[in-house]
TrEMBL record:
SUPFAM superfamilies: Homeodomain-like, P-loop containing nucleoside triphosphate hydrolases. GO terms for biological process: regulation of DNA-templated transcription. SMART domains: AAA. Pfam families: AAA_lid_14 (PF25601), HTH_8 (PF02954), Sigma54_activat (PF00158), VpsR (PF20161). GO terms for molecular function: ATP binding; sequence-specific DNA binding. PANTHER family: TRANSCRIPTIONAL REGULATOR-RELATED, TRANSCRIPTIONAL REGULATORY PROTEIN. CDD domains: AAA. This is Sigma-54-dependent Fis family transcriptional regulator.
Amino acid sequence: MARRKGLLLDRAGLVSAALDGLQLSGWSFEVAPTLACARELLTGGEFSVGLVAFDAADSWPLRELEGLLSRYDVEWIAVLDRSLLDSEVLAPLLRRNFYDFHSLPLEHDRLRMTLGHAHGKASLFEKVAPQQDDEGRFGMTGRSAKMLKLYRQIDKIVAVDAPVLIGGESGTGKELVASAIHRHSARASKPFVAMNCGGIPASLIHSELFGYERGAFTGAHQRKIGTIEAANGGVLFLDEIGDLPLDLQASLLRFLQEKTIVRVGGTERLKMNVRVIAATHVDLDRAVAEGRFREDLFYRLNVLHLVVPALRERKDDIELLAQVIYDRNQDLRSHQVRGFSAEAIHAMAAYDWPGNVRELINRVQHAMIMSENRFINAADLGLTAAEAPVPTLDEVRNTVEREMIESSLKRYQNNVSATARQLGVSRVTLYRMIDRLKIIV
Ligand SMILES: Nc1ncnc2c1ncn2[C@@H]1O[C@H](COP(=O)(O)OP(=O)(O)OP(=O)(O)O)[C@@H](O)[C@H]1O
Ligand SMILES: [Mg+2]
């Protein structure tokens, strides 16, 4: 078995000699007497577990220590005298940054078990870290069935040049899809120009789309190119197309049919080569039925149709998305934050996400800045904890230990020596565990 590597931060040499004496098989430790030395070792080596010895509450400059502990993917175990657990300065730091603690004096079996658990946890994190390549496609994150279907549709859409209508709730990623279509189509080297039809006063939309000549109206001091012309050769993304006033719908339809424009105040008819991608978060069918949207324009735009799924319809992706958002926003992270708690992941899965991915981004960013915990919890995300509480690692560990001990005791007809031998612990340790886990022998 490859030796596991541990780091020991030991300012006063309190623990290193004792640790040597224990001769823990399968483990090798490097000792750092200062934080600077620890930083150097951590940068170079692959440690899964670190021990930090405290001889007093102020053994280490705490802020610097916390900065160091939170920066590396190492499971930390505090080694200290039990009395220090009550220290007002030390206790919160321990809670935020440490996986477990080991009270002095060092004990071979107890330490080996704690180290083993911490190492197991560290390897678990390594395994679940998402692989870059399988996160998604087209710059989008998601591997759910709904997203895979969307990717297949995009694959077809990038191969042709017809208009596209993208539907989907607010914040689902409609603009992201539009720009992905552009980047993966034959028009990729030409412009992508976005215009929000709902964000511009109705009176200005026409000149915004078609541009104007100098002197076309008061204040038109020089010629201005419109968004259609700016997108020539490339893609024009018309966001919130449902907000386009009816008279402009007629102008847009004419442009789509004739593929030409005339700037406001101009006479020249200019030939344009633009692919239009439109998006809407409202139900355009209904707008057509109610006479608010021209049916002929609807059919022109709706040659290719995509619906970006709401986040609640692809719950499988939530954890992955949250992790990707977390990884991309490391600069926002409060120094002790190390990831999400299981409770947070449950709460995210249970929530409905009316604001979709945009809301998820906001909540994760907020939590990364404001959380005072080592692992972001539901409250940090502004969510309520899901009904069934997730067991803590301690609870899981206790359950597994209890089950193993009980089955082994049964096998050896409650013979403690034989059970201890099979489980690889001393009799004293086994007695202590039986006591702690309230096992009836
Ligand atoms: N699948 C995804 N993977 C990663 N990021 C995403 C995904 N979908 C959306 N986003 C991000 O979510 C945010 C909102 O996306 P976008 O602006 O494309 O949504 P929208 O549907 O256009 O929203 P609205 O209707 O409010 O305009 C953006 O920051 C975008 O990068
Ligand atoms: Mg948008």
